[in-house]
Amino acid sequence: MSKRIYTYYWMTIPAVLLFFLFLTLPAIQGVYYSFTNYNGFGQTYDFIGLRNYINLFTDNVVGDAYWFTIKFAVVVTILVNIFSLMIALGLNASIRFRNFFRGIYFLPNILSVLIVGYIFNYLFSNVFTVWGQSLGINALSTNILGNESLAWLGVVIVAVWQGIALNTILYLAGLQTIPSDVYEASSLDGAGKWREFWSITFPLIAPFFTINMVLAMKNALMVFDQIVALTNGGPGRATQSISFLIYTGGFEGGEFAYQSANSVIYFIVIAIISILQIRFLQRREMDM
Fold it and tell me: What is the pLDDT of residues 1-60, one digit of tens each?
């Protein structure tokens, strides 16, 4: 037994040390620097207390980034879960080439976010515009990524297209857990498909709905790669997300300590939103 325990120690201790070294320690250092005026270079800095945190709440650039990120996250979360649930219901039915289509719909999840972003950047600027001009569709005739009021929709399209893949697989896993005799009993009672979905399917996959909502919201709040590949935060600052602002301001703008404070607030916001989501959705599960 003692030898087995030592084996577990040798398996877990290196993983814990690596996690602490590359994740926990940098996070602690970031919190420490958030109370200073450190610019990211050199060794000289002064402690300034809560000044960085106070300035964050009066910074219009930071406020715009939070507004864009939250608006983006809400829209993406809703669309991803609607489309992924619809696709999962279709892929769970008895159709031909079902496994083939399941693999096709999961394909976007294994592709690099940056590569997908650059591909869609080319499509928006060089393909869709040509189609729009040929078909006489004004909405497609110009690159929406260059439009300050529409650029965020281009980022939403890419994020939803790629985010659907994982959520579809999770919904499929949930649908597999529903016994078939439940549907047989409902059909004998004369229940229609719509009634069957709201009274049987959705309540029984409610835990998977909770997981998907939390994961989709968390991933959307942390949007970064799509911004880099599609708009680079532009036009102007129209699509500048919080994570993108932290990166550019901290590593390129000499605001290392200031953006460290921003990252602490950012972490707290994501944690609060996730906790509220879980509590609300789990309460709904019990009501169902």
Answer: 566 777 788 888 899 999 999 999 999 999 999 999 988 887 888 899 899 999 999 999
Q: Does pTM top 0.85 for this prediction? A: yes
DSSP label of 178: S
pLDDT 10s digits, 139-198: 778 889 988 888 999 999 999 999 999 999 999 999 988 888 888 788 777 777 888 888
